Amino acid sequence: METEKKLLSVVVSVYNEEEALPLFYKTAKPILEDLSWDYELLFVNDGSMDGSLAFLRNLAKQDDRVKVISFSRNFGHEAAMIAGIDYASGDGIVCMDADLQHPPECLPGIVKRLEEGCGVISMVRVKNKSAGLIKNITSAGFYAVINALSDVKFEANASDFFAVSKQAAQVLKGSYREKVRFLRGYVQNIGFKRETMEYEAQERVAGASKYSIRKLFAFSVNTIMCFSNLPLKLGIYAGIVAVLLGVAVMVYTLLTREGAPSGYATIVILICFMFAILFVLVGIIGEYIAILFSELKDRPIYVVEETRNCNCSEQSKIS
Q1: CB count, 10 Å around CB of 57?
Q2: 175 within 8 A of 135, measured Cβ to Cβ
Q3: Out of 109-123, 254-268, 269-283, least confident range
Q4: Who is most buried in 34, 225, 233, 247, counting CB within 10 A?
Q5: Distances (CA, A) of 228 to 223, 233, 255, 285
Q6: pTM of the full predicted structure?
Q7: In angstroms, rounded to a whole number, what is the distance separating the alpha carbons of residues 194 and 76?
Q8: How many of the other CB atoms lie within 10 Å of CB of 202?
Q9: Neighbours of 90 (CB within 10 A)
Q10: In what helix (H) or strand (E) does residue 127 lie, and over which residues does it extend?
Q11: Is 142 left (phi over 0), alpha (psi -120 to 50) or beta?
């Protein structure tokens, strides 16, 4: 009796990728066909404003293994990935981008590790041909900061290219439903047997990066807030510094017996220093309150407008 093939779900986030999608499908299709597992391709259209959705509709007509989930508007890359995981029914799930920076050639190696019982496979970039010096430095700095502040230690250069087993995916579907998300962090935080695979990020085949410097900065701040409470404790440390500074000034005054240090500039500098610390702490508290406010509003992570080749009876279109 022939055993039933396992199913691999490949989740692809799509935002204005009209030019890249045909190249991705042409590259990934033969690789998927050669796998020992069966497969499904889940394209999540994240409110694209070009012809991406039209292409995906036609592709779904031609290939019933292609599933399309289209949002009512742009909800962001993180929302697209979790939506793909929600709709996926595979024994293993791979999340990747459509611009071929995440090489489909890695899929056979991922399937092999899933067969060996891995629950989480983190794909780590060893080289990024499209990233400049500044982006590489800021990326390294981000992981250094988050690992210093958080109890959870993340793989440096881990990307949104990762794979999870069906069991691990169930955890992501049932829990980790925050409105402010860092999915690659959650994947490394849920436990299970975890391995890393290295890959070399290729040149983007079409289009441009959807993350501006401002978006990357906001994303980094939200990530730190989600995984660390240490910034909230900075007020204690700042208070200790202020007390020590005050004691130092008092000792200086008693030893010199000349009264307080003279000079208008000294007073202004001390006042500016103290107010700077105060405003930084107020800003940090404000960021945490903003995250709490987003969670309390409990608005959906995404809203699905239409699907193709999907069994929607078990999946809500609002999540």
Answers
A1: 15
A2: no
A3: 254-268
A4: 225
A5: 9, 10, 43, 13
A6: 0.73
A7: 26
A8: 16
A9: 23
A10: strand 120-128
A11: alpha
